[in-house]
Structure formats: C-alpha cells, structure tokens
Amino acid sequence: MKTVEEQLRIIAKGVSILVDEDELRNKLTEFIQNNRPLIIKLGLDPSAPDIHLGHAVVLRKIKQMQDLGHEAVIIIGDFTGKIGDPSGKSKGRNALTDEQVRENARTYFEQIFKVLDKKKTTVRYNSEWLSKLNFEDVLRLAATTTVARMMERDDFQNRFTNNIPIGIHEFFYPLMQAYDSIELNADIELGGTDQTFNILMGRTLQKTMGQSQQVAMFMPLLEGLDGVEKMSKSLENYIGVYESAKVMFKKVMEVPDELILKYFELATDEHPDRIEAIRQELVQGKNPRDIKYALAEIITSLYHTEQEVIEAKEYYDKAFIKKAIPDQIPELAVKAQSHLVEIIPLLVENGFIKSNSEFRRLVQQNGVQLNQHKLKHIDSILLYGDVLKIGKKRFVKIIWEG
Amino acid sequence: MKTVEEQLRIIAKGVSILVDEDELRNKLTEFIQNNRPLIIKLGLDPSAPDIHLGHAVVLRKIKQMQDLGHEAVIIIGDFTGKIGDPSGKSKGRNALTDEQVRENARTYFEQIFKVLDKKKTTVRYNSEWLSKLNFEDVLRLAATTTVARMMERDDFQNRFTNNIPIGIHEFFYPLMQAYDSIELNADIELGGTDQTFNILMGRTLQKTMGQSQQVAMFMPLLEGLDGVEKMSKSLENYIGVYESAKVMFKKVMEVPDELILKYFELATDEHPDRIEAIRQELVQGKNPRDIKYALAEIITSLYHTEQEVIEAKEYYDKAFIKKAIPDQIPELAVKAQSHLVEIIPLLVENGFIKSNSEFRRLVQQNGVQLNQHKLKHIDSILLYGDVLKIGKKRFVKIIWEG
C-alpha cells in the first residue's frame, strides 16, 4: 500500500480546490491504519448525456483513488429527476418516470464503467432515502441552514439581486445533495467547480449531524478541441468515451498544443512524475506533435483494446500523416507576395471553390488548411510551394505566375 | 336571512383591513342564493394562554358571522407545535407531546366556546393533513412561492438586512398556514394585523391551486386598561374571559373613556346602528361613566348569566360608588392654592403615607385617586373639600388651614 504522502500526491494531481488537505491526510492515515477504504461520493444527474472526456475528469480521479484502494459510491439523483420542476415553469425539467430514470441510468453505467472499477463501485438511487422523508424530517433538514447561507450561492445571489424569482423549493437541491452525504457517511465528494456550494453544504450538514466532514474536491473544467470553450457536445468540441479508437486518436491529435499538459493531468491516469517529465520535454523544445501522439495513444488505450489502439494508430498514420497530401495535386499560379484573400477570385475561377462566401465560411468552420495547419487568417501571405487543403478533398499548390 | 349589504355591514364593523370587499360581497351573494354557509377559518396556537378580551376580538367577529349563518373552523396548529423549533436554537419552542397539545387544546376550548357557537364550529388539527405530506409534496408546496415574496414579510426582511439568521424551515410556517386554507377550502380567514403576510399567503396558494381565494380579515389590536399597550396578561392590563362577573364588571369600568367606542366595536356584538347611537351620545356630552356602565353590563353579560351580572352590578355599586368614600374621613389642613406635590411632607408627617417615594410609586401605579378619578399629575392644584384616596383604604379630605 502506498504511503499517505504518495497517495495525497496522486489524489491532488490536477485538482482545482481541495477542502482541505489536512483532513484528507488524516483520513488517509486512518485508512492505512485500519484498512477502511475511504468512501468517495459522486452525484450524477440522470438526464443521461453521452459521456465525454470532460465528464470523465471526475471519473478518472475516482478511478485513481480506487486504484489506491478506496471505494466509490455513485448517487443517481432519481428523486429530483422524478419530481422534475415542481413549479411547472421550466419545460426542460419534466418529471421522469421510474422507467426512464432506470433506462437513462443503464446508458450511463455502460459509459462510466469504461472508467471506473466496477468491483469498487456501488450505485445508489437517492429516492431510496429521500422519498421516505416526511414533512417533519424536511423541516429538520431545512432548519440546519439559513437564508443568508443559501444566498452565498452565486446564482441565488445574482437572481435575488436582479429580481429573478427563486422558488423556495430550489433551496432544497443543495440540501438534498448534502443529505445524500449523510446517508453515505461520505469521506470525499467530487465535482466540478460549479458544484462548490452544494458540496460544501454536505460538509456543513455532516458537521451538524455529528459526522466527520467529507473532503471536498473540485476538478477544473476541461476545454474542448477548440481550446477555448468547456468541452461539450453541443459545441462539437468533444471527445466521447464511446467513440471508436480511430476517431478518438484522431481527435486527441487535434488538441491545441497549449492543452497537452492539462489533458495529461485531467484525461489520463499518468503519475505526477511522468507529467512533470513531459512538462520538462515541452520546455526543452520537444515537438509537441510527438508528445501529443503519446497522449493520443494513452487516452485511446484507456477506452479501447490494445489491438484497437494499434489499428487506430495505423489508420491515423496512413490517413493523416503519410497521405496527408496526395502525390499529384493541381497547381495555381499567383503573383509572388500575394495575400490569400487576394487569390480568392482565382480559386473561384479555377473551380476550387464555388464562391467567395463559400471560402470564407469554410475558413470560419476551420475547413481550410495551409500546409496541414488550420488556416486562421484569411490574409496570410502565400509562399511558393504552399499547399492549401479546402474542405476534405480539394488540394491546391501555390506556384508563382510567369 | 339578512341581505348581503346588511351582512356586509355587520361583518365589516371594527375590521381594520378587508381584502377585499367585492369578493366578500360575491361570496355572501352566493351564500344567500345557494344557502351554502361560508367557511371561516381561524388558526390558533396550541400554547394555551388564558384568553382575554384582546384575544376575543377575532372570536367575537366569528360569532357575529355565525349568527348570520356561517360556519367556523378552528385550526389547532398541533403539527408545528409538535415539531417545536427544529433548529433547536429557541428554548421557548420545545416540542410538545400529543398529550400536551390535546390538554392545551382542551383548556382553550373551554374558553373559546364562551364566545363561539359550538353548533357552528368545527375543530381540526393540522397534523391531520400536514403529517401526511412527503418530501415530494413539500417541494411542490415550496415551489408555489419565491424567496423574494417571503422577504416581503417584515420580520424576515428586517432579520435578513440586520444579518440575523433566518432558518430555511421558517419559510414553511406561512406555507403551512396557507396549506390549511387549501385543506378547508376556506372562504374567510381572520387574524390580527400581525398575521397579514401569512393570511395573504393563503390567498396566493388558493389561487395557485385553483381555489376561490379566501377573504382576508384583519382585526385591530385592542388596548388594555392602561389605554396604551396592547392587552396582555404580562402587562396586567387585561380582562380575562374567565374572570368572575364582579371582576369583569369592575375592570370594564376602568377602561379609559377614549376607548369606550373601540370596546363597543371590538369587545361586544352590538349592531353598528347601536354603536353609532352611542357615538352620538358621547359627542352630545353624555357622561362617559354612564355609557361605560352600559358597556360593562353588555360585556359581562356576554360571559356570565343574568343573575351573575345583577350581582356584579350590585357589588360594584356598593363597593365602588355608594361607599366609594367613607362617611367619616380624616382632614388635612393645607394652604389655599397648594399643589399636591407640596403637601407630600404633610402627608408623611400625619401618617397617611410612609415616605415621599412611596407616594410617588403609588401615583405611578394609579393607586391614588382625587375625587374618585385616577390621579395623573402630581402637581395638581388642590381645592377645598378635595378627597384623596391613597392605596385601597386611606382617605384624606383637604381643608384650608387657619
């Protein structure tokens, strides 16, 4: 079994906020002394999106703790899900039936167990205990906190200040989540930084109820392939855990260089020492593309078999490196010192594109490459021999006229 | 059956705020058309104080409506009472047992049925429906209102502004009271003006739930015998409904003249025409003492038998009028044009009082009379033949010296 400090180092890797380290150290010391695994809580919404590497950040962190000997409990918030929005105001929050909740949960599990260790994971539905609370129990729960405390939550504060209604029932969502921690006697709860208030509420409630307070662990948000926005399905900047090895490998290769280290920290289970070594390599000028290739291999391996990874690499090498540019491509003669924007009429004239506007749209959608790099500025200066790739199949090589 | 407008006049007598008159008119019209009595709701706290005429203001108003053909439902808030203060912070709000609640309620009933018509009164305990609500029901109830709305209640607003904690459970007290109105399908709810927020919440909830909104009827506070403070047991300025006819009669005779009309309005069931006639008599200079005598007879009759009232009057006449001043009383010779304050040393010297300070204390406690009126100003000018009554038994007549 690893030492307390070694466990602490692995657990703290990539974590945004840890509340607090001393408590975690004490819990780990007890774990080693009594061989009682820590109970790690993760609450999941049963609205069942496809899980991508952004969602997987907390799951990977749990997996790392499972590898250290701890136990995970996944809470499916079916109680809240079944109620929907009791004010009836939000159309998006319709009540789900038992059947729907169970079906969504099944889809979820198929995905989360691509990350978590099934043997060290329990799944519980919070309706199990929450549906049993009566009015008196609810009042006792409500009495554990105050209006002022609730108003510390940013969204409540903002809405109150801006006269946007806050339903009284909304105060119960943090309280319900906190109550789940009581039921589990949770040692650690994880979440994104957007979960700060709710997870800290669990600590408060545990203290009120005489339990040892859970350590709160907040993970940073992972930016998607655009390098700017949080990874999300709707922005199409995501890498889904259920995607094929080929797609996954290729997508990791599209991660912006600046995010390589962050992806190593949050999307892999690599040891902090390894990550430090990679940081050194980057500092010393090693080609980011080679490091990213290693990253793609590691991430793909986390979700696919060895054979699938080999095939994904072969496919990538063939499609995107070796044959990235066809042997024979048409040439376009332009004036030396042309800016790209100046030759658009020539591109239209010669049938490479249909119109000026089509070309601009393709550029905006990152559908144009200049020498295998995304074209960002439409008035880049063209050099002799530059290769433009327009859309998926159209190539053109720039030469000087005359 | 009385006409709508006549009923409205009787019901509105003495009411501080009525929300709103048109709705009440409609309800009364329906009552007359369909012979469906209106359901009048009154919530009572099971903490069981002795009821005095101040508490009886709402009860008398209900009695007047019962006489018009309507039905009262008394809600005993045992659910709240049994929970006590779930935050455990207020020592005054310990949880009551079922037994205590029932015992308190019994004491209460003995007193309220000295006012209300038992045949037209139903008593219900709100634990009957509130204890059956589960978490989901509670969330639906909570969703009917907003934090901003709750903050309109003065005490919440003040506490929030002054950083005095408000427990989340406290938001449920108005909601529970409102839910009681739903359960009853109440047509009218009565309360003191301090109940404004809670009773109006009932209207809101009924509207949300698709019920006809209850009319809210707020009664003014009744000042006690000191003419200044709200009648209350702790201030000893009260007339209890359980006091003997003799005590009650005598206490009504101590009501300050300025409050005669208010007592007629709020502490009797007299018709508005009669009250208007009395107002005219007062304006025309009729001796307030005679009108008060009639008031004392009316109020005492509301709580005692005819025979008891006769005996009370006889007792009062004998003890406080006919023998108000003994035949033989000692005389004290003072300088003409003396102020009372100037003769205090003489009063001490002659053994009428023990000390200057005793006299001043007695004056403060209304224990000194000058010619059968309470002495208010210690520097009143004394006239020849004035009779001072000091405490219960000491009399002294003022004469001029020399």
From TrEMBL, chains A, B:
It is an enzyme of class 6 (ligase). It catalyses: tRNA(Tyr) + L-tyrosine + ATP = L-tyrosyl-tRNA(Tyr) + AMP + diphosphate + H(+). GO terms for molecular function: ATP binding; RNA binding; tyrosine-tRNA ligase activity. It is found in: Cytoplasm. CDD domains: S4, TyrRS_core. One of its GO terms (biological process) is tyrosyl-tRNA aminoacylation. A motif ('KMSKS' region) lies at residues 230-234. This is Tyrosine--tRNA ligase. It comes from Clostridium kluyveri (strain ATCC 8527 / DSM 555 / NBRC 12016 / NCIMB 10680 / K1).
